[in-house]
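mind reviewing both lines:
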Amino acid sequence: MKTRLIIGVSGSSGPHLAWATLKALRNHPEVETHLVLSKGADMTIHLEMGKKRSDFEALADVCYDPTDLGATISSGSFQTIGMAVVPCSMKCLASMATGICDDLLTRAADVCLKERRRLVVVPRETPLNLIHIRNMETLTLAGATILPPVPAFYHQPKTIDDLLNQTVGKILDQFGITHELFRRWEGRKV
């Protein structure tokens, strides 16, 4: 059986991060991707990328309606290695932090927390207010990993894709998925 990984895409700015994540996972046939896009993601995908839900769904192995709370990923008995929410809006983050599971994306995240599976949250907001920070703290205390898409420059990125791939590589690292998306730090040359 393949390893299953859930990818949640919220309505936050930066759907490019999810696009790059799904594209990178296509190079891993051993990983079965389960995709759920929030209703807000549809608008952001269109506004920021000129793409549609179906474009994203074409990159995933299994896709879900965000209103289907009876989907397989809403149950802890459905085995996965976890979930990445990329990008994650502050609304979605607040729902996860408070246990409000009013759509499939937040329910799947809640399942990961309750089953002690890895939940990687890629928040896309700046600056942060105290409510955002406390919600991130709550999720961290519950077992999630908060992975902001902070660009690194030690690998000397030349393109936007280089910057996106560095964040995607960090996401894949959290799930133990090997990749060559960016050059890792090798120490200072003396």
Strands lie at 3-9, 31-37, 62-64, 82-88, 118-123, 145-146. Residues 67 and 103 are 5 Å apart (CA to CA). The helical segments are 15-25, 39-49, 53-57, 90-98, 104-114, 130-141, 160-174.
